[in-house]
Amino acid sequence: MSEPAGTQADASVTGESFLVRAALIAAALAFLTLFLFLPLVAVFVEAGGRGLEGYLAALSEPDALSAIRLTLLVAAISVPLNVVVGVAAAWAIARYRFRGRNLLVSLVDLPFSVSPVIAGLVYVLLFGAQGYFGPWLRAHDVEIVFALPGIVLATLFVTFPFVARELIPHMEAIGSTDEEAALTLGASPWRMFFAISLPNVKWSLLYGVLLCNARAMGEFGAVAVVSGRIRGLTATMPLHIEILYNEYNGAAAFAVASLLAGLALVTLAAKTFLEWRYADAIAAARHS
Amino acid sequence: MTTAASVGRKRTWREPSILPGFGLSMGVLLAALALIVLAPLAALVLKAGGAGPAEILAIASSPRTLAALRLSFGAALAAALVNAVFGLLIAWVLVRYSFPGRRLVDAAVDLPFALPTAVAGIALTAVWAPNGALGALAASLGWKVAYTPLGVMIALVFVSLPFVVRSVQPVLQDAGADVEEAAALLGASRLRTVFGVVLPGVAPALLTGATLAFARAVGEYGSVIFIAGNVPMVSEIAPLLIVIKLEQFDYAGAAVVGMLMLLISLALLLAVNALQAWSRRRLGNV
Q1: A3 domain residue, yes or no
Q2: What CATH number is given to the structural domain containing A95?
Q3: Is B54 exposed, middle or buried (0-12, 13-18, 19+ CB in 10 A)?
Q4: Which of A265, A270, B81, B238 could covalently link to B68 via disulfide, CB atoms 3.0 to 4.6 Å apart?
């Protein structure tokens, strides 16, 4: 009989009253509405500003199509490269103990604390017309800056940590007993890797690829600096948005932006699905 | 002293392991790191250093550079503080309370990670411009947000929003109820329990999150340039100054500003690390 009263008392010493709770939830939701939800809604509202026809026209004009193609191409090149490097990085860092390991982890994370603009700047300093290798490149007719290779390099720089960061804690949490067992049973190193190591971390790998891809397709600062923003030629989707916006063609800019916002929502949905479905595997990767 | 296991074996720089592939994976990692990250950053240091001390000093102390650096670091600090307060609040609400749509809100916190910065930039401008939904409201109160330093801060709050929430959330989740119960039994008010018992426990995570938010906000470019208005000396951020110098083919000037940004960030990160280590020592194993 006194039980319900007892639990209620317990709940109230380590909880807040209904009013306080409601006020805190309201404050948090108000903040998120101002800073997250309203801007997101604005993208789609502004994109529809000229009706469906205007929307489709903005997406099907040649420069927009070329921007979409370029963005997909850049992601198609840089994400797989990032996966190879990220898996190698995670293997070297998570599976071995060696001197300088902490330094190496910091170096892998370094691109996160470098401004995207600096990530673009460094390649211009190396490969630009007045850069260290500029004259040599011009003499041999190789284009890096203001062309696809520069965009890919800058994208690789800014996405460098994504895959490794998700894999390292997960690999460490799993430990290497499965792999040792496979080796003891006579598996070749590559067989061990593809049959044991990779399947063990597949969800955090997918998670890393997802984030890496979103960043690769959406990168602005680094790509703006190395690409020269040549309309229809080296403008990726984010750069095309800027070009349209600066021409006061807001509706078209938001139409292209709505595609990227859609990509962001799909990324979030997939990420959330992975987290719900494979919470245990990914919790290890995210929280440690 | 050598242990029995390593007797007769050359002391190596890594612990022995039966797992294959160290050479290959380390080779791939070091090659990629050197080619993509380290060599290009070395070029930046070389270019900035090559300008000579007099020119470096002239660029670093020019009013426009100083104003841009002050705005970038100041607005990033303000954004980190705003996010420290509201990020903690959001994490608290998400962990402690249940309300309709909680999981959706939890997922939406990561939106700034997934939304391209250029999209965020034009969206925030649309909302906060004088004719936008919130901009009109602010204007009626006599505030101008877009095209001012306040607009810069708003964009930085947006891009760095997830860091504090995601750093604090797991710590709040793992914190046991026992200490709170003990505090309550010992007669502490709820307010005192929260501020004296719960929050000190999440302080290191809060500091980590705020630092990550700050580091991200300092270098941010894409979301800021649309809403900032980019008036030199007023609302021009340091990354934009680098872009402007590059467009004028002033490579050395761009490199020096970039170098300054990196050095200040590095010094601040080291200071925070030291603070983190100090608080860990002082508070024991938290």
Answers
A1: no
A2: 1.10.3720.10
A3: exposed
A4: B238
Three-state SS annotation for A70-120: HHHHHHHHHHHHHHHHHHHHHHHHHHCCECCHHHHHHHHHHHHHCCHHHHH
Cα A243 from chain centroid (whole Å):
23
What's the CA gap between B30 and B33, in Å, rounded? 5
B19 part of a folded domain: no
Is there a contact between A117 and B177 if contact means CB atoms under 8 Å apart? no
Token representation of residue A27:
């404050």
Contact list in A for residue B111 (CB cut-off 8 A) is: 36, 40, 264, 268
Q: What CA–CA distance (Å, rounded) separates B107 from A36?
A: 12
Contact A107 B38 (CB under 8 A): yes
CA distance B72 to chain A (A): 11
Phi-psi region of A143 (alpha: psi -120 to 50; beta: other; left: phi over 0): beta
Q: Do A31 and B29 touch (CB under 8 A)?
A: no
Handedness of CA A198, A203, A204, A205 (dihedral sign): positive
Rounded CA separation B46/A125 (Å)? 10
Please check whether residue A260 is in contact with residue B116, taking contact to mean a CB–CB distance below 8 angstroms.
Answer: yes
**CA separation for the pair B147, B234 (Å, rounded):** 10
The residues near A155 (Cβ < 8 Å, ≥ 6 apart) are: A74, A75, A78, A216, A219, A222, A223
**What's B82's domain CATH number?**
1.10.3720.10
- The alpha carbon of residue A149 and the mean position of all alpha carbons in its chain are separated, in whole angstroms, by 20
φ, ψ dihedrals at A142, nearest 5°: -105, 130
SS3 for B129-158 is CCCCHHHHHHHHCCCCCCCCHHHHHHHHHH
pLDDT digits (tens, 9 = 90+) for A252-281: 999 999 999 999 999 999 998 888 877 765
Residue B109 lies inside a defined structural domain of this protein: yes
- pLDDT tens string, chain B, 286 residues long: the values are 444 444 445 567 888 888 999 999 999 999 999 999 999 999 999 999 888 889 999 999 999 999 999 999 999 999 999 999 999 999 999 999 999 999 999 999 999 999 999 999 999 999 999 888 898 898 888 888 888 999 999 999 999 999 999 999 999 988 878 888 888 888 888 888 888 888 888 998 999 999 999 999 999 999 999 999 888 888 999 999 999 999 898 999 999 999 999 999 888 888 888 888 887 777 655 4
- Cα separation, B102 vs A26, whole angstroms: 12
Nearest by CB to A115, from B111, B185, B219: name it.
B219
* Count of the separate structural domains present in chain A: 1
Of B107, B132, B161, the CB nearest to A272: B107
A residues 47-66 closer than 8 Å to B (CB): none
Q: Which residue has the tokens 């990168």?
A: A219
Burial state string for B196-231 with b = 16 or more CB within 10 A and e = fewer than 16? ebbeebbbbbbbbbbbbbbbbbbbbbbbbbbbbbbe
CB of B109 within 8 Å of a chain A CB? The answer is yes
